[in-house]
């Protein structure tokens, strides 16, 4: 499974059960998808963002 994070959103590639499980995992830590994207975007240096 792969997760691609962009400044305006994200894309997940994998099997349906993998994506559902990953979303459940992220849901335990973040209330909104927006919060997760902002957190990941801050941790990735600007030159490496897609």
Textual characterization of the structure:
The protein has 50 residues and is of the alpha+beta class. The protein is 50% helix and 16% strand. It contains two helices and two strands. It has helices spanning 16-29, 33-43, and strands spanning 2-5, 10-13. Strands 1-2 form a two-stranded antiparallel ribbon. Strand 1 and strand 2 form a beta hairpin. The longest helix has 14 residues, at 16-29. The protein is globular, with a radius of gyration of 11 Å.
Helix and strand arrangement:
Layout lengths: L1 E4 L4 E4 L2 H14 L3 H11 L7
Antiparallel strand pairs: 1-2
Can you tag this structure with a few keywords?
single chain; two-stranded antiparallel sheet; 2 helices; 50% helix; globular
Q: Which outline best applies?
A: globular
* Tally of helical runs: 2
Mean pLDDT, all residues = 81
Strand content: 15-25%
What is the ordering of alpha helices and beta strands?
EEHH
Radius of gyration: 11 Å
Summary of the model, kept short:
This protein is α+β, with helices and mostly antiparallel strands and 50 residues long. The chain contains 2 helices and 2 strands, in the order ββαα.
């Amino acid at each position: 499974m792969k997760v691609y994070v962009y400044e305006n959103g994200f894309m997940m590639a994998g099997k349906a059960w993998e994506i559902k499980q990953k979303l459940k995992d992220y849901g335990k830590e973040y209330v909104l998808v927006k919060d997760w994207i902002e957190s990941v975007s801050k941790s990735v240096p600007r030159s490496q963002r897609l």
